[in-house]
Write a structure and sequence with these properties.
Oligomer: single chain
Low-confidence stretches: none
Strand order of the largest sheet: 1-8-5-4-2-3
Distance between the termini: 27 Å
Structural class: alpha/beta
CATH class of the largest domain: Mainly Alpha
Bound molecules: nicotinamide-adenine-dinucleotide
Mean pLDDT: 97
CATH superfamily of the largest domain: Dehydroquinate synthase-like - alpha domain
CATH topology of the largest domain: Dehydroquinate synthase-like, alpha domain
Number of helices: 14
Shape: globular
Length: 353
C-alpha cells in the first residue's frame, strides 16, 4: 500500500441506472435551467430529438453538429445558436465528441451542464478539454468544464454498436491501467481503477455476445464511469501520449487507437510498475499482464494493429519523435529507441513485450 499520497476529489453528481433519463426534467429544474440547449453529433440527432421531446417547453431545442476533437469552428457556431436562443444550460447527449462540445461551450459561458454519455469514453468525469484549432489539438484543464450532473442511462448504451463497444471499453480500461501506475496515484483512485477494469473485463465478452443485455451493459457502464473518474484524477502517461500523437498528428480514430496501443504501452511500463501489475494480475490472472490484455482484445474482436487503422508505416519514426519530444510523468523513462520498437510491434500487431 502507498504510505504517502495526496487525494483531491472532484465534485460529481451521478444518476446511474436503466431508465434514469426519466429524471432529466427534474434535474434540469434542480440546476435552475429553463431553456437548456441539447447537443449531439449529426449521427445521434434522432435520439437527441427524443431527449428534447422529453423536456417539452423546458428546452431551447438542439444543436447537432458536434464533431470529433472539438473543432473551435464548431464551438463558435454552437455559441451563436446558444445566444440566439437565449439558452441557459447545456444537455450533452452522446460520446466524448459531444461532451467535448458541451465542455467547450461551458468554458466560454459558464452555463451548467448535464451529460448523458452513450459511450465508455469517460470525458464527463474529467476537467479536461481537448480543442482543435487549425488542425492542432490543445488540451486545457479547468473545473469550469466539469458537468454538474451526469445521467448514466444504461439503456442508451445498448445501441452502441459492438465494434464501438469493444474499442470504447478498451479506451476506458486504458484510463484505469495508466491510473494504476500514475506517479501521482492514490489508494482511492487505484481501488476504483482495479474495480473498473474488473467490471469491464467481465462485461465486454458478454456485451459482444448479447449487446442488449442490460446486466452486462450496466456493469460495463459502471466500469466506464470509474475509469472516467480515474482519468480526471491522476496524470496519464505513455499510452495516452502515444494515442494523442497518433490521433492528433496522423488522424487515427480515438477509441480504436487506444484499443490497439494499450497492451504495448503496458508492456513498456510493466517492469517499472509492480503495483499496477499486481492489481492487473488480480483481474486478468497470473502471467504477463500485457500479453493477457492483448489476448483479451483479440478475443473480443479489437482491431489488432496500427496498420489496420490505416497508419502509414513511414510515419512511425515521426510518431516516435513526437512521443519522446517532451518529458511527461511515466513510470519508465521515455526512451526514443524503445518507443520506436513499441510502435513497430503495434504497427504489425505482434504480441507485446
Ligand atoms: P464519439 O463521441 O466521437 O462517438 C463516435 C460516433 O459514435 C459518433 O458518431 C457518435 O454519435 C456515435 N455514438 C455514440 N454513442 C452511440 C450510441 N450509443 N449508439 C450509436 N452511436 C453512438 O466517440 P468517443 O470515443 O466517445 O469520443 C471520442 C472523443 O472524445 C475524442 O475527441 C476524444 O479526444 C474525446 N475524449 C475526451 C476526454 C476528456 O477527458 N476530455 C476523454 C475521453 C475522450
Amino acid at each position: 500500500m502507498q504510505s504517502e499520497f495526496v487525494f483531491s476529489g472532484l465534485p460529481m453528481r451521478v444518476l446511474f441506472g436503466a431508465g434514469t433519463i426519466s429524471r432529466l426534467p427534474e434535474e434540469v429544474t434542480r440546476l435552475g435551467m429553463r431553456r437548456p440547449l441539447v447537443v449531439s453529433t449529426p449521427e445521434q440527432r434522432d435520439q437527441a430529438e427524443g431527449v428534447i421531446a422529453r423536456l417539452g417547453e423546458a428546452s431551447s431545442g438542439g444543436f447537432f453538429g458536434a464533431r470529433m476533437h472539438t473543432p473551435v469552428a464548431v464551438t463558435e457556431e454552437a455559441l451563436a445558436v446558444l445566444s440566439e436562443r437565449r439558452a441557459d444550460g447545456l444537455v450533452a447527449f452522446g460520446g466524448g465528441s459531444t461532451t467535448g462540445l458541451s465542455k467547450a461551450l461551458a468554458l466560454r459561458t459558464d452555463l451548467p451542464q448535464i451529460a448523458i454519455p452513450t459511450t465508455y469514453a469517460g470525458s464527463e468525469m474529467t476537467p479536461i478539454l481537448g480543442e482543435t484549432r487549425d488542425g492542432e489539438k490543445h488540451t486545457i484543464r479547468s473545473e469550469r468544464v466539469l458537468p454538474e450532473t451526469t445521467i448514466y442511462d444504461v439503456e442508451f448504451t445498448t445501441g452502441l454498436p459492438v465494434a464501438m463497444s469493444v474499442t470504447s471499453g478498451l479506451n476506458a480500461i486504458a484510463h484505469a491501467v495508466e491510473a494504476l501506475y500514475a506517479p501521482d496515484r492514490n489508494p482511492i483512485i487505484s481501488l476504483m481503477a482495479e474495480t473498473a477494469t474488473a467490471a469491464l473485463v467481465r462485461a465486454l465478452p458478454a456485451v459482444i455476445e448479447r449487446p442488449d443485455d442490460i446486466g452486462a451493459r450496466t456493469e460495463a457502464l459502471y466500469g466506464a464511469w470509474l475509469c472516467g473518474v480515474a482519468l480526471g484524477a491522476v496524470g496519464m502517461g505513455l499510452h495516452h501520449k502515444l494515442c494523442h500523437t497518433l490521433g492528433g498528428s496522423f488522424d487515427l480514430p480515438h477509441a480504436p487507437t487506444h484499443a490497439v496501443v494499450l497492451p504495448y504501452a503496458l508492456a513498456y511500463n510493466a517492469a517499472a510498475a509492480p503495483e499496477a501489475v499486481a492489481a492487473l494480475r488480480r483481474v486478468m490472472g497470473e502471467g504477463d499482464v500485457a500479453v493477457a490484455l492483448h489476448r483479451f482484445g483479440q478475443r473480443i474482436g479489437a482491431p489488432s494493429s496500427l496498420a489496420d487503422l490505416g497508419l502509414d508505416e513511414g510515419n512511425l519514426d515521426r510518431a516516435a519523435d513526437l512521443a519522446a519530444a517532451r518529458p511527461y510523468p511515466n513510470p519508465r523513462p521515455i526512451e526514443r529507441g524503445a518507443i520506436r520498437a513499441l510502435l513497430d510491434d503495434a504497427y504489425h500487431g505482434r504480441p507485446p513485450g
